[in-house]
Amino acid sequence: MGLITGVLTLLYHLPQIYKWLLKPYYIVSFLMTVAFLVVRKTPGLCEHLATDREDGNSCDFDWREVEILMFLSAIVMMKNRRATFVMTCKPPLYMGPEYIKYFSDKTIDEELQRDGRITWLVEFYANWSSDCQSFAPIFANLSLKYNCAGLRFGKVDIGRYGEVSQRYKVSTSPLAKQLPSLLLFQGGREVMRRPMVDNKGRAVSWTFNEENIIREFNLNELFQKSKKLNKKQNHPQTEEGSEELHQESNGVEEPTESKKDQ
């Protein structure tokens, strides 16, 4: 029964797996992984390779190559448990447009508490995390759509600023699976975060895509409220300007009463 369930789950997620794997860096990573194995085992090519084997068979692995392959496999499995047999490369860094403010350990508290009317959606990330690098274009696209005076987007590198990680209780351990983490702040206080964390300090499984973020954080509603806030802030200024223009057009100053008349 368990085997049937696993096969059905694999078939259900097969389109998403294909979409995830058909990216340039994964394709290049797979080709680089199998290139040496293919050359070492292909007749006509392997015969021209050097070998340290005692029998002189260059079409088989020697003890040094076996040690190197086992060492690399152990590193890959420790770094990313999902990459068991295939050595994957990190996704390329996102260099596109964005409306995101980058915080440091000295500026994050000040910015979040400066104006209580501003809502902040902050990503806690680490440069070494491939999941954070894959999420970067999604978060940048959301900032381009929803950033305004009352709804701001920010990022902080907790791999660099460990004090921020401890202060906001976001673990950088690969076992915790809390990277990236999105925290929503209103009035300088955290009101929501994804992924959520269980009692053991591990992140509850959650998919970081644009649809889930918009739905879970109510970005459409927050954006509409922020636009109304902008209108309220601009409205008193326009009224004061119209009164000044009205007085100037009349050219008559209002009489001022003396203290005795009052």
Automatic annotation (TrEMBL):
Cellular component annotations (GO), alphabetically ordered: mitochondrial membrane
Localisation: Mitochondrion membrane
GO BP, sorted A to Z: brain development
Listed Gene3D superfamilies: Glutaredoxin
UniProt membrane topology term: Single-pass type I membrane protein
Residue ranges constituting the Thioredoxin domain according to the UniProt record: 76-231
Entry-linked PANTHER family: THIOREDOXIN-RELATED, THIOREDOXIN-RELATED TRANSMEMBRANE PROTEIN 2
Protein name in UniProt: Thioredoxin-related transmembrane protein 2a
Species the sequence originates in: Cyprinodon variegatus (Sheepshead minnow)
